[in-house]
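ok so i was messing around last nite and threw this chain in just to see what happens. nothing serious, just curious
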Amino acid sequence: MPKDTDFFARARTELNLKNAVLAAFGATRKVGVKASEDKQVLALLASQAPVITMVAKSDIRHVERALRTDGPENLAMIKDSVEFLVREGRRVFIDAEHFFDGFRYDPKYSTAAVLTAFEAGAEVVCLCDTNGGMLPGWVTDIVGEIREATNAQGILGMHAHNDSGCAVANTLAAIDAGCEHFQGTVNGYGERTGNVDLITTVANLELKYGRKVLVGQLDDSTRISHAISEITNISPFARQPYVGSSAFAHKAGLHASAIKVDSDLYQHTDPTMVGNDMRMLVSDMAGRASIELKGKELGFDLSDKPDLLTSITNRIKHAEAKGYTYEAADASFELVLVEEVEGERPDYFQVQSWRTIVERQGRRGTDAISEATVKLIIGGERVIVTGEGNGPVNALDAALRQALEVAYPEIAKFELIDFKVRILDQEHGTDAITRVLIEAADGKRTWSTVGVGPNLLEASWEALTDSAIYGLIHAGVNPI
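result:
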């Protein structure tokens, strides 16, 4: 492919890797073609990558039905391709596709595929659970058998998919049974239910097994995970092991009381080891200990202020009863603390009024036009702005930003990245109470706010204004 060719050509001069090694990925030669004449094998060689990884069939059913050839020819394809690239000075890794399913069907043939690759000079043969259906006990048994059969000829690897929910467990089982190499992706991204999560697996190996895996530092894990989420435009998974925002989050009052004594009582490891941190969640289950710990996390010392702590606890419980939730809206909870501790929140603006209009012209199926007008007082001046958007909430967001941006240019960095709506009393139908959760970011941090109202727009407006105020506070901006 032209893009691949251009990438490798530029990589030779522009890519300066300190610890990693660039690998080119392809497949063994085609049926009936010499490796030295196969266009795809020659393209791998032309990449000049020091490592070539080739996928090879190791399940006789795939050989016969997908490749439409026989077992001996497939073994010859592996042998010829590996020998050719090794002669050309390349390190060769073989991904034994569908190995585990193939081994359970015909262990003799799958073993022959691995042995052929090693005998031809492959440095690593990676055993692939391509369909992702294996369980740890099966992996342990099969890797043990193939390790014995190969008699330590080369390095065995593991490539796990997560279709059975066991990708991490299967990878650790393979390592326990003799694999020294494994493949995966950051955050477990991949087809279907994904690949094994590199971050979770590495953290387990370093923190649980005591094995040094990384050249860099494990405490970069959370930062890297979230950075790649941003690049891929996939919201971080809150319940992701080790690096998720809920990985070290505590909610129940009983837990909070114990954590005040010793945080290790309810955590399997120190969250700072992976660059994460402990979080206290505040909800209607929260007691004074939870509020105190959450306040401390946010920089508010409530330990010697029992009356204030009681006031905050009662306010939170009352708000929760009305439909608010703070366990997923740390920013809104912090604004509550600011009001209770300091008497009021920073007065960046006062709201005079706001309204939205949704208009559709023409036939059914044409796009509706959403428009919002906000009237604010900023620094004693009346500001009126009209914004348009893809729906009334987006229009409100646009109008609020435009109104604030002249006085507070920092607002331009704020971006709404997630929006969730929940109807709380569904038996009332369209007249039900609505809760809105908004997540925003400024390129350095993310924060979440909550709004509750009799309709979607009122709830959204509360969450939007809270989000703007919180963002300005943490950007170090003073009201004008």
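not much to say yet. The chain has 16 helices and 14 strands.
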